[in-house]
Q: What sequence folds into this?
């Protein structure tokens, strides 16, 4: 084996694509819209990474040890406590994400009514997926009750689980993508409104 960089034949090369020939202009241009030194951006990245790590580690720890259930005197109370912590962390993550979006450079190509409507559509679809998942699973089903030994009679196969395997994750992703588009276009309408008031 050679010490030089692996060519397109390494490990099948993902269909023999030579990534050394990739045009990175688009990625370089997109990275111009991100200020990674912004404290709001850092806080958003940390909360986005920390939250699922936290709840998965705690839930798996609970499944192996049952220490939360013993501490709270009931698996239901322990699950409700973890659910409350997850809700708090999600609110914090949403706040950090929103502040990061507002403090980052603007992508002016998204400043148009079509992008605004696309953001609204993504928020609507995401909200339907998240809320219908919650109603289908209930509180303990949504907040990792199975790790506490709180199981449903059978696996949920009603909407939206009959369409997607992980509708809550897809819905959350759609919500965050919709939010990412909205602040850009929201500023346009605020400017338009203030210009209209100045003319009057």
A:
């Amino acid at each position: 084996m050679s010490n030089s960089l692996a060519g397109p034949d390494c490990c099948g090369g993902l269909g023999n694509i030579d990534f050394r020939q990739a045009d990175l202009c688009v990625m370089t241009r997109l990275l111009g819209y991100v200020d990674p030194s912004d404290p709001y951006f850092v806080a958003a990245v940390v909360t986005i990474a920390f939250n699922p790590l936290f709840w998965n580690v705690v839930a798996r720890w609970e499944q192996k040890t049952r220490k939360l259930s013993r501490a709270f005197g009931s698996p239901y109370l322990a699950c409700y406590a973890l659910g409350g912590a997850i809700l708090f962390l999600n609110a914090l993550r949403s706040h950090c994400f929103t502040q990061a979006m507002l403090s980052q450079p603007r992508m002016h190509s998204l400043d148009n009514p079509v992008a605004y409507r696309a953001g609204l559509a993504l928020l609507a679809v995401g909200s339907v997926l998240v809320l219908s998942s919650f109603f289908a699973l209930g509180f303990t089903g949504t907040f990792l009750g199975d790790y506490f030994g709180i199981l449903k009679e059978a696996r949920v196969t009603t909407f939206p689980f009959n369409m997607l395997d992980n509708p809550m994750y897809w819905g959350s992703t759609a919500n965050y993508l919709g939010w990412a588009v909205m602040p850009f276009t929201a500023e346009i309408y605020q400017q338009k409104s203030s210009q209209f008031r100045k003319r009057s």
